[in-house]
Each structure stands twice: as structure tokens, then as C-alpha cells.
Amino acid sequence: MVAIVVILASTISVFTLAFTEDANQPGPIVGQSSDELVPQDGSDGGIVRINHIAGDTIQVSNMQVIVDASDACGKQGRLVNLPVPSGGNDIDQSNIEGDDIFDQRAYGFDAVPGPNTIHRSEYAAGEQIAFRVTGGSCSINQGDAITVRVAHTPTNSVVIKETLTAA
Fold first, then answer.
1. Which of 10, 41, 95, 143 has the most CB atoms around its CB within 10 Å?
2. Is residue 160 one of the residues assigned to a domain?
3. Which residue has the higher pLDDT, 105 or 13?
4. d(CA 122, CA 60)
5. 69 lies in which domain range?
6. Are the C-beta atoms of residues 114 and 132 closer than 8 Å to each other?
7. Domains: count for the chain
8. Which pTM was predicted?
9. What is the pLDDT of residues 50-82, one digit of tens each?
10. Does residue 61 lie in a domain region?
């Protein structure tokens, strides 16, 4: 009788664990830091940089960048359909969900300087996500805070959460 109960319990547990295995996959682990958020001053400032210091490499096509600028301007936007093709506009309407608070200009005047992971296939240690919150859509003044989250879409997990205050 005990043997039958043990066999039934182990059979049921195998079926149950097999069904829940995929739902419990952890997201990548990323260590991060960020530069300060500078208030906008004409065509300068508003640039956000999230640096990948250590941890797992993430496929950029499996990421979304969520920006909550409710404190600064009452808006929230999301960068999707990454990576963004290099050349032309850095970000276009197909890359934006929610409020369009992102600067869409190409490299050159007012562009986000430096290398940028949103154009690459992987987000690995030593690389950074960079974008500009445009002053025309969302003015960032001294003391305003924005929260940036990097989400890993296959696991629905937030791998980075940074709250930046304009200094």
C-alpha cells in the first residue's frame, strides 16, 4: 500500500513539475550603474545611459526599455522592437509604445553621442543603453526623477531598475 502511494505521488509530481518548469525560468542577472541625468538645457541634456557592469549577456531582441517620467512630465514610454537599425533615425515610431518622449534624431547635431547597445544584437558587460528624453515632449528640470527599467521579455522579468534624478 505504501509503495503504491509513493509511486502515485512521484508520477503526479513529475507531471506537475514538467508543466511548471517553463513558467519558473529566472531572468538574466545584470549588474548595472548609470550616469547622472542632466536637466535639459536647449539642445543639451536629457541623455540617459544605463551601463552593464557585470552579469549575463542579453539578446537585445529580447529586451524592452521602459521609461517612467511621471515625475518630470506625467508621461511613460517604452522602447520596443529592438535592436534599432543603425543609420537613419536612431528610434522611429515602430520602436515606441506609450508616450513618445524619445529623441528620434540620427547621429549628428543633438544626437546621443557614443556607442549604443540599442543598435547591437547583445547587451553585455561593458556596454550601455543610451537614449535622450526630448525636451519638446518631456521637459526634465533639476530635481525631476525618471525611472528606467530594462525588461527581459521571454521571462517577463525586470533585469535593471534605475531611478535617476536630474542634478
1. 95
2. yes
3. 105
4. 5
5. 27-165
6. no
7. 1
8. 0.79
9. 888 889 999 999 999 999 999 999 999 999 999
10. yes
